[in-house]
Every structure is written in C-alpha cells, then in structure tokens.
Design goal:
Shape: elongated
Structural class: alpha/beta
Helix content: 40-55%
Radius of gyration: 28 Å
Number of domains: 3
Number of helices: 16
Order of helices and strands: HEEEHHEEHHHHEEHHHEEHHHHHH
Largest sheet: 5 strands, mixed
Strand order of the largest sheet: 1-3-2-5-4
Distance between the termini: 48 Å
Strand content: 5-15%
C-alpha cells in the first residue's frame, strides 16, 4: 500500500488526506508497534506507539496529545506532531519501552544518553532522568572518593587516557546547564580546567567524527579560566606551605642522628618532591597538565614508589613518621580543594560534596 494511502478517509473522524507529495516523505520508524494506537509524527518519520503508556509516564506529552487539533490519520491512527529531532525522539521512546540499563556514561553512548536526558527532563519522565543521572554520576563525580575511582578507571598500565573512556567536558557542560544537573558541573569544569587554555578556547571535535565539533560560550570559557587560575594558586600555596623548607616531624627517626647526611634525609626528600612538582613532572611525564588534585597526591606517592627520587646511589625517601604526617597534609589539602570547586566555577549548590542520591 502506498504511504499516502495510509491516511484514513473515514469521514466520521473528519480526517485529512495529505497530498501525495507531502505524505510520501514520511517513513515508518522501526520503533513502531502493530497494536499501537497513536502516530507520533516528527520531521520525516512517524512512530506507532501506545497512547496509554506515553500518557502514563509524561504529563507534558499527555497534554500535547489531549490538546492536539491535528485531524490527520496515519495507518488509521490519530496523528500528533512532536517538534523534536527524529533520532532524539527515537532514543527517548526506546528508553520508555526498554529502559536504559544497557547504556553507560561512556563516550560511545554519549549521544544517546544526552538525547534521553534532554527529553526526559523536558517531558518530565522522572524515573528515566534519575536513571541517566545515576549513570553520569560515576563519571562526573560529586565527591573526591568517586573522582579518584574515576581517574583510576581511566588509567591503564600507568597511561592516563580519559578521552578514550569519558565524554569531553566541553560536550557535557552545556548539557548539564540545559537539564539543570548543576551538581555535575564542578567536576566537569575541573576536568576541563586541566586542559591548556588554547584547547579550551578552540573547542573539541570527536576523533571518530571530526565534522562534529563542540564549543563553549564566552561565559563558560571565562568561568573555566577563572577556576583554572584559582586551582593553580591553590597548588602554589600547597607547595609553599607544605613542601618548601618542610622540617622533620617530632618523631622523625633521623632528626637526632649524629650523621649530618642522615639528618638531612627527610628534608632532602621533600626538597626533591618540590623540585619535581615545580617543573610540572605530572604534566610532562603523566600527561596531566595543570592537575592540582593529582599533583598533590603525587607529591606523597613519589616517596612510596620503587624508583625513589634522586640520582646515583642517593635515596631521597622520608622516614615513615614524616611520610605519615605529610599524608595527613595531602589528604586535608585535596579535600579542601574539592570543597572549593563550586565557588571557583560559579556553581551554587546547597550541599557539596555530595555523597547521597542516585
């Protein structure tokens, strides 16, 4: 049967037959059901769906259907036109029928996840929105522990490659503003602040599809650059207060040693760490340019690795007591930095960090 003939001519329904040149442009989407009783028309596609299911889950769609004055019929079903992109609506309808358990927060699923989140928010399908936000929470962390797990998951054999695993923050920041998921903005902005300023300004293109690019507006660019400066100052302050000229702790095993060389072991260890951080070792070697959270943690981990800092046969490794005292300073500084992220990036939240929800 020709597609233009699919519009009923039942005069009892006061239906309208579209001219052939118009009706032939519509295609039946694979997400259609034989027992469906409603045709959703979007761009050049239509979906045959179940009115009861749609209305049960979405009050705005129920109102749209109820208020529709469209007299057309398609495959003998009433037609309601929806002003969305057909691909986005297809993802959204699929989530209503099949759920979202098969999706993840990975770069591969980003386009689908973003489409579902936008429409679930717009059409007030709360349970789908919550499920999507729960998935995103593992990537766009709301507390420091979750962030550390996220970073670990992006590291393979010592090589840190987040862009192979997670969507670029330039892709998600506008989305989080749009759907009012403000709780994810601090970590997204921090992630972006670790990039070079030139990369922030130039936007980002997905390697698999270079024709598609994402950019931030001027306000968001200014926000991330201001936060980047604050994070840099925080790291500088940490170096000055906790590393430069750090004295041995009260329980240092070398503090009272008569050998001047041994007496200098712990101070020399922290001097070496200071040098490594100042020359941006974490950016040059680990490809984490301007990452204060990592740099502060690495200042402690440097003293625990099998290849201690130093040259020749000299081993700059602080004693256990001095390392433990420094570990507390590192933990306190990292928690303090995380606490400041919303203020640095202009995000107003009632609670931060967040450990509950989703």
């Amino acid at each position: 049967m020709a597609l233009q003939d699919d519009f009923s001519t039942n005069q009892n329904h006061a239906s309208t037959i579209l001219p052939a040149q118009h009706s032939s442009s519509y295609q039946k989407h694979p997400l259609s059901f034989e027992d469906g009783n409603l045709a959703l028309l979007v761009e050049n596609y239509f979906f045959i769906v179940h009115k009861g299911l749609i209305c049960r889950h979405s009050a705005p769609l129920e109102k749209l259907i109820k208020d529709s004055t469209d007299k057309r019929r398609l495959l003998n079903r009433p037609v309601v036109e929806v002003k969305e992109k057909w691909a986005d609506l297809g993802c959204f309808l699929s989530s209503m029928y099949d759920g979202v358990t098969h999706l993840s927060a990975s770069i591969e699923d980003f386009a689908v996840v973003a489409a579902i989140l936008r429409l679930a928010t717009k059409y007030q399908v709360a349970h789908i929105r919550i499920e999507i936000l729960r998935k995103l929470a593992s990537t766009w962390s709301r507390n420091l522990l979750a962030w550390d797990i996220r970073e670990s998951n992006a590291t393979t054999l010592g090589l840190y490659k987040p862009r192979a695993v997670y969507p670029h923050p330039i892709m998600v920041i506008p989305l989080f503003y749009e759907v009012k998921a403000f709780e994810f903005l601090p970590s997204a902005f921090y992630d972006l602040s670790r990039c070079l300023a030139s990369d922030i300004l130039s936007g980002w293109s997905y390697p698999a599809d270079p024709s598609t690019s994402w950019y931030l507006n001027n306000e968001a660019i200014l926000t991330v650059l201001k936060g980047k400066e604050q994070a840099s100052r925080f790291l500088s302050t940490f170096i000055v207060n906790e590393l430069e000229g750090r004295e041995p702790c009260a329980s240092c095993v070398y503090k009272s040693d008569p050998d001047p060389m041994k007496k200098r072991i712990c101070p020399a260890s922290f001097e070496a760490v200071t040098f490594e951080i100042v020359r941006d070792c974490n950016g040059v070697v680990c490809h984490r340019v301007t990452d204060p959270l990592f740099a502060i943690l690495d200042s402690y981990l440097m003293q625990k690795r099998d290849n201690p800092i130093g040259r020749g046969k000299i081993t700059f490794r602080a004693c256990d007591y001095c390392r433990d005292e420094f570990a507390h300073a590192v933990e306190s500084a990292r928690n303090d930095l995380w606490q400041k992220l919303p203020a640095w990036f202009g995000v107003k939240l009632e609670h931060w960090p967040q450990n509950a929800g989703y």
